[in-house]
Model the fold of this input.
Amino acid sequence: MDIKKIRNFSIIAHIDHGKSTLADRFIEYTQVVDKRDMEDRLLDDMDLEKERGITIKSHPVRLEYKAKDGETYILNLIDTPGHVDFAYEVSRSLAACEGALLLIDASQGVQAQTVANVNLAMKQDLAIIPVINKIDLASADIDMCCEQLEEILTIPSEEAVLASSKQGIGIEEILEAIVERIPHPEITGSDDLKALIFDSVYDKYRGVINYIRLISGSVQRGTSVRFYSNNLSTDVKEVGFFEPNMVPHDLLTAGSVGYIIPNIKSAEEAKMGDTISYSNRPCDEPLPGFQEVKPMVFSGIYPVETSDYEALKQSMAKLRLNDAAFQYTAETSAALGFGFRCGFLGLLHMEIIQERLRREYDMDIIATYPSVIYHVYQTDGTFMSVENPLLLPDPVSIDRIEEPIVKVQIMSPGEYMGGIMNLILEKRGIYKETLNVDHLHILIKAEIPLHEIVIDFHDKLKSITKGYGSMDYEPLCYRAEPLVKLEMQINQEPVDAFATIVHSTMAESRGRHLAERLKEVIPKHLFKIAVQATIGGKVVARETVNAMRKDVTAKCYGGDITRKRKLLEKQKEGKKKMKAIGKVNLPQDVFVKILQSGD
Done:
């Protein structure tokens, strides 16, 4: 294929602005798939993606389009996730393109994640084609979208293409704009292989499948290739294109987007963003932008039934094959038994993994409170990274604790500004500035601790703004704060499942709230149970679960009062003895009720 007839592009947008629907219309228009095989959101494989209206995994597709100039062009669409958790995946997909369609919902306008993704595209110097989608809606405000395009994104509004993915309006105009405005891949003139891995999936029959974009050179079955990041060499078993299913072909050439199946069995060996070259002529330097993907949010995952531990272990191993960003290590808890400490890219990534474990593998699981990585500096000069509150050293030996801070951008109608500002202050954020986007919307910038973001910030923002607010965040720095480990003790025994790292100013209220909730769910015993919240041995909140009372005087049908007193005294002595030697038995549903309620 002539490289001048290839166009590689991506679609970037906020969640639920119509990326997958627009991709469906492209597939229909170019007749890549027979009408009888068409279905809504064709590029979304998981039921979870279709139900929640989000793209979790990017899905490329190769389209053949006959333009108005009479020439046939190959359009390689690389669909991308829209959520902030997958920002690195978006950046690698954009690196495989020369242009991007910027999709804006005509009824909602520019959102926070739209701004973030446009900035990523501009950093990579991509040609951007703005598309104002959903113009058929009664609530569409095209003038507002044009104003926001110019004010926020500095893109001339006359460049925008008006469309409706659902109704099929403007599809041909968008395809023509792709051919005219997006440049063809650069002609390097080099025969040396250089290819970018922008995604990987695992197939249980064929092993790891790498989605690649060839910058230069060519690759075919039997080619010996090398991965730059780990110097691993292997032979290629198959190459092909996405039509939209994987179809084998003889050869992939420069400028193409396709897949290769190397002879490897672990997704960790072929990392997203890595560079592939010939084994006998490895490239001197890799393509820019490669990063090791590191988890930002951690949580413990345990089976409700301890007998399901091995099944959970196997399920996690299978998920890990398909998702190299998901990490887990075995751990044990005195309260919850055997389980795993898991690392995720963010809160949505955590929800997706937990939901997939429940749905795809039929696992009944409990997840502990999400935590982040803290930097702990001790008085003897040693440094340690802590993502599990149980590993925090003794308070006496700690010089300072630093927590991760993120830079947050919140887009919202101006009428909700007061509620958003209160939320930022409640979450220990530092307000930076407010920008007037247009006559209706504002953009608020702030710095907020990541731990506050991962708990319930997004839910509260949606509640305050009645669903119209959107947010985006990116890592900023680590900052020293007076943080403490809050532990819950039941009958003087610490319960590790409820341990958490909190700000000292919030520890007491958090401890009191947890103690009150535990008092409600702990079943009564034959003696009083003390529920205490402690910080470094100091009790900051306490509740008491009253004893179950047995009526020992029921068998007395009369006689002297001293008979009843004798029985009550005997009961009192027994309770005293039981309190000293008795152990509190916490059923599993206590942990389920507390941890799954998000308290």
Notes: The longest strand covers residues 398-413.
